[in-house]
Amino acid sequence: MVDVAGGDASRARLEGITDTIRVGLGAANGAREEALPACRSCIRSASRAIRAVHRAEPEAVARHLAEAEASLRVAQRTLAPFPGLVHAGFLHDAEKEHAEARLTEALVGGEPVPGPDEVGVAPAAWMRGLCEAASELRRNLLDRLREGDLERGEALLGTMDDVYDVLSGVDQPDALTHGLRRSLDQLRAVLERSRGDVTTTVLQTRLQRAIESRG
């Protein structure tokens, strides 16, 4: 004899569980749809801030950094109830770009570097942001060399070297650092090219001074 009542109860339980899951997935998808544009906005504003740093436009830097941070905070608040989405990757990218902009501003200006808590990002995003900010210094370094400011150029090269050395000591799996090793490989290549540029400029400067002294 078939227990119809029991079958109905079992189906109702399955439907209840599935409905709960469906509601949760719907909420997560809604959060994702809201957070993605905020993350993209953060990345755009951070990129504009970095360009403004290189152009020495402090007011534009401040404006774009404020826009980036506002967008990032929206994304962080929206995704906070959904840990799976927090670690999906797109929030990390936005945090990394925001950190890169903040750290580029500090490194170019010779200011103390703000830590992850001050920037308001995860440690892994901060480390990758710092690594890419150090790579961004190459543009500023070349500008200083073209202007004949060799001392500042050498100082920027030293900062790039320090960042590479410090972050190279973080020997953890990529699953924890979100690709820091790859970013470090890129920084090393930028660092070596920059070291060659500084060395060439130093030698040219010495030769020019020697020629002038003989004249």
Written overview of the protein:
By secondary structure, the chain is mostly helical. The protein has two domains: about 1-110; about 120-215, Methane Monooxygenase Hydroxylase, Chain G, domain 1. It contains nine helices and no strands. The protein has helices at about 5-55, 60-80, 85, 90-110, 115-120, 125-145, 150-170, 175, 180-215. The longest helix has about 50 residues, at about 5-55. The protein is elongated and about 105 Å long. InterPro entries: Translin_sf. GO terms for molecular function: sequence-specific DNA binding. It comes from Iamia majanohamensis. This is Haloacid dehalogenase.
Short key terms for the protein model shown above:
215 residues; mainly alpha; Methane Monooxygenase Hydroxylase, Chain G, domain 1; 2 domains; 85% helix; sequence-specific DNA binding; Translin_sf; Haloacid dehalogenase
